[in-house]
Amino acid sequence: MSVMGRSHAQQTGAHCQDAMALRTAGSLLVAIVCDGAGSAAWSYVGARMVADRLTAALSEIPAHYRPLRAHQEAVQAFVTDRLGAERRRLIEAVARFNGQRNVEAKDDCAGGFAEFAARLFKGLWSLEETKADGDTNNEAVHSVEIAERLRCTLVGALVDDSGGFLFHIGDGLASACALRLGNAGACVAEGTEIASPPENGQYANETFFVTDPDWRDHLRFTLIGPECDAVFLMTDGAAAFAGGPDQRSLFVPFANQLLPHLTTRPDPDLSDFLAQVLPPEKVHRVTADDATLVFAHKRRGDPDVSPEAASA
User: Fold this and answer.
1) Which of 128, 145, 146, 223 would suit a FRET pair with 160, their CA atoms being 20 to 30 Å apart?
2) pLDDT tens by residue, the chain, 312 residues
3) Cα angle at 91 between 220 and 34, to 5 degrees?
4) Options 2.40.30.170, 3.60.40.10, 2.40.37.10, 1.10.10.10; CATH of 6-311
5) Residue 1: what pLDDT?
6) Domain regions of the chain by residue span
7) For residue 162, which of 63, 70, 79 has the smallest C-alpha distance?
8) Is 160:68 a contact under the CB 8 Å cutoff?
9) 105 burial class (0-12, 13-18, 19+ CB within 10 angstroms)?
10) What is the largest CA-CA distance in the chain?
């Protein structure tokens, strides 16, 4: 389920600027949410492509990096390298297209950019045409202007049976915790939450983006252990109702309302369920922004991770 924020829904031709992606392979889970900057013309493209491409790349992490907690430095280097490669491919592909068409930032449809974006999403535009061997500071290739048009944040999780990492650039919130069975069903075990809070700049509405030149300085990793069998990832729009008062940790009462349903439903895609409990009109009363929430947990007695996700 994907519902555009109130501020975007009121604009003709506006896009939902949030994106999410997740994959599982045995006990490995990769989940990512991205929030495109409202001030960036093509941020919906940056968010969608970073989420999709980085999730796919991390799901192919070599076996010699497993278990994840036993290879912490190597895993962090792998994530950093893959992110650097994917962001560079994206910026170069869009810069190359724009160099041919010279599309104005404020005109999404001019020069065929909308069609180009659709081809990117479908994998019909080959990002492999650009080299992936490292990141450079060559401004002739890395158009600062193009990078600014693609601005998006990053909130992710890479987890296996040993635990793993939350990784993060910018605002939004990631939370991992253990679950316990209460009278009403599953709930967050007290004192078990490990959170990756938002990083803001000098002002509350200032943050950092994947396409910024200094993105490496703002890429943060948070180690989580095997006792954490549930992960919540959210953009700042979702943190307005799923995060605590300061949006730096999970709002546990909200999570405990949903967990009995989320952990017992047999269907892996909970979008319809979350659409019922979090309809657009309810979300719009809390935030004007797009709101994306991803939830994943390990089913009891099941060695594989069961991903449950929705974009609201």
Assistant:
1) 128
2) 456 666 655 554 568 899 999 999 999 999 999 999 988 989 999 999 999 999 999 999 999 999 999 999 999 999 999 999 999 999 988 888 877 666 665 556 556 788 888 888 887 666 655 444 444 444 444 478 899 999 999 999 999 999 999 999 999 999 999 999 877 789 999 999 999 999 998 877 899 999 999 999 999 999 999 999 999 999 999 999 999 998 999 999 999 988 888 887 666 566 677 777 777 777 778 786 888 999 998 875 555 555 555 444
3) 45
4) 3.60.40.10
5) 47
6) 6-311
7) 70
8) yes
9) middle
10) 62
User: For residue 118, what are the contacts with CB-CB under 8 A and spacing of at least 6?
Assistant: none
250 and 197 in contact (C-beta within 8 Å)? no
Q: Report phi then psi at 125, rounded to 5.
A: -105, 120
- What DSSP string describes 28-65? EEEEEEEEB-TTSTTHHHHHHHHHHHHHHHHTT--GGG
What sections of the chain are H helices per DSSP? 6-9, 43-58, 72-101, 113-121, 144-149, 236-242, 252-262, 271-277, 280-286
What tokens were used for 122?
Answer: 């479908």
DSSP letter for 263, please.
T
What whole-number distance in Å separates Cα of residue 200 and Cα of residue 248? 11
What tokens were used for 12?
């003709």
Class of residue 304 by CB neighbours under 10 A (exposed 0-12, middle 13-18, buried 19+): middle
Neighbours of 45 (CB within 10 A): 27
**Strand duo 292-298 + 230-234: pairing:** antiparallel
Q: How many residues does the chain have?
A: 312
Closest CA to 58 of 34, 76, 37, 45: 76
As given in the structure block, the two tokens for residue 142 are 């890395």
Q: What is the pTM of this model?
A: 0.88
